[in-house]
Design a protein that fits this description.
The chain is 49% helix and 17% strand. Residues 1-9, 23-29 and 31-39 have low confidence and may be disordered. The chain is globular. Helix 2 runs antiparallel to helix 9 (264-298), helix 5 crosses helix 10 (309-330) and helix 10 (309-330) packs antiparallel against helix 11 (332-343). The relative contact order is 0.16. The chain has 2 domains: 41-162 and 247-287, Bacterial extracellular solute-binding protein, family 7 (D-Maltodextrin-Binding Protein, domain 2, 3-Layer(aba) Sandwich); 164-246 and 297-343, D-Maltodextrin-Binding Protein, domain 2, CATH 3.40.190. With 344 residues, it is α/β, with parallel strands linked by helices. The protein has helices at 12-40, 55-70, 92-97, 130-149, 188-196, 206-214, 225-230, 256-260, 264-298, 309-330, 332-343, and strands at residues 42-48, 75-80, 103-107, 153-160, 164-168, 182-185, 200-203, 220-224, 239-241, 249-255, 302-304. Helix 5 links the parallel strand 6 and strand 7.
């Protein structure tokens, strides 16, 4: 309500000035709340190493759309695909805490350096089906959340990737071909397994790996059909061997204080958008592998499925020590989940 002020009547000029003042006060009282609401709107810069048509990129695009709709534009997610910001998965937690980004979608294996439990989904030959991958990650989710929260990060949703295979320059006939591979692995665990099997393997972020491929320092990639198709690996590696090594996850997260700054109603809407995104991402898996394979074949890729038995046997044998080492480092709760998955 406007204050009761005497209106001087003896001077037209004074009367006009008072009217102008009253109008200005009324304008401020009416417009200020709207301006405050606009000023309070939030934009989260998020990133991924992968292209927008990759399963990780699809997840971030879906999340941005769902968040905008659910919060009526109060929270906007500004996505950066294909490593536009030059921040790889392993660097994302530090980049978020430094304020360079609010969060992102990071390949989980690359996060295992901050907590080994985040490497669970890249353990070799642990899961061999979409259903088991989902059940295993559901059991592990509280451990993922705890690991991220300890670093000031809030888990939003998980994306399960199609099964990992071996892209190579030449067809792989069996275990004897492993020593001929200069191979890009996608985390410390897979690098250790591949080296134990005889390959010259190293863990490289995607950008560095692609550079190595173009410079002919690499002749093989450990990644899914999804990861390979998104990067057009067929230009260099026209063979794919379906070893079903793992079904890794990527983890979308945001900085904890950025989430905490939202009101409780907005937090609920963001988490609902994240849950919808996770469900949508899981639904993609139903025919993702077949679509990837069709696209790969259309681009001249020869797919070996099933993989040669001697190759699989060598990789499974090489995996034993790496899995045992992971279980020793990660603790009883995580080890119990891995053991449960193996028994299914």
């Amino acid at each position: 309500m406007l204050p009761d002020l005497p209106l001087p009547m003896h001077s037209p000029a004074k009367r006009i000035r008072c009217i102008v003042v009253f109008a200005w006060i009324a304008l401020v009282l009416n417009v200020a709340p709207a301006l405050a609401e606009v000023a309070a709107k939030v934009t989260w810069q998020m990133t991924t190493e992968y292209p927008e048509n990759n399963i990780s990129g699809i997840g971030l695009a879906t999340f941005a759309s769902r968040v905008f709709e659910r919060t009526h534009g109060f929270v906007t997610v500004a996505n950066n695909f294909d490593n536009k910001l030059k921040i790889n998965s392993g660097e994302m937690p530090r980049a978020a805490l430094d304020g360079r980004i609010a969060g992102g979608d990071a390949f989980a294996g690359a996060l295992s350096g901050i907590d080994p439990v985040l490497g669970l989904s890249t353990l070799p030959f642990l899961v061999q089906s979409v259903e088991l991958a989902r059940a295993t990650n559901l059991r592990a989710r509280p451990l993922y959340e705890k690991a991220l929260a300890a670093r000031g990060l809030k888990l939003l949703y998980l994306t399960i990737w199609p099964a990992t295979g071996l892209w190579s320059e030449r067809a792989l006939q069996g275990a004897d071909d492993l020593p001929t591979l200069n191979l890009r692995a996608y985390d410390a665990n897979s690098s250790a397994v591949m080296r134990a099997a005889g390959a010259n393997a190293q863990f490289l972020p995607m950008d560095a790996a692609l550079a190595g491929l173009k410079e002919h320092r690499l002749n093989a990639f450990l990644t899914s059909g999804d990861g390979g198709a998104g990067r057009k690996l067929w230009d260099f590696l026209p063979h794919f061997t379906a070893i079903n090594y793992a079904m890794p996850v990527s983890i979308a997260f945001v900085r904890g204080d950025a989430f905490a700054e939202l009101s409780e109603p907005m937090q609920r809407e963001v988490l609902a958008a994240a849950a919808e995104t996770e469900q949508s991402q899981f639904a993609l898996l139903a025919d993702r592998t077949s679509k990837n394979y069709a696209r790969m074949r259309d681009n001249g890729v020869t797919i070996a499925e099933p993989a040669p038995q001697s190759l699989l046997a060598a990789l499974r044998k090489a995996a034993t020590a790496t899995v045992a080492d992971w279980e020793a480092k990660t603790g009883a709760d995580a080890a119990a989940i891995a053991q449960w998955a193996r028994q299914q």
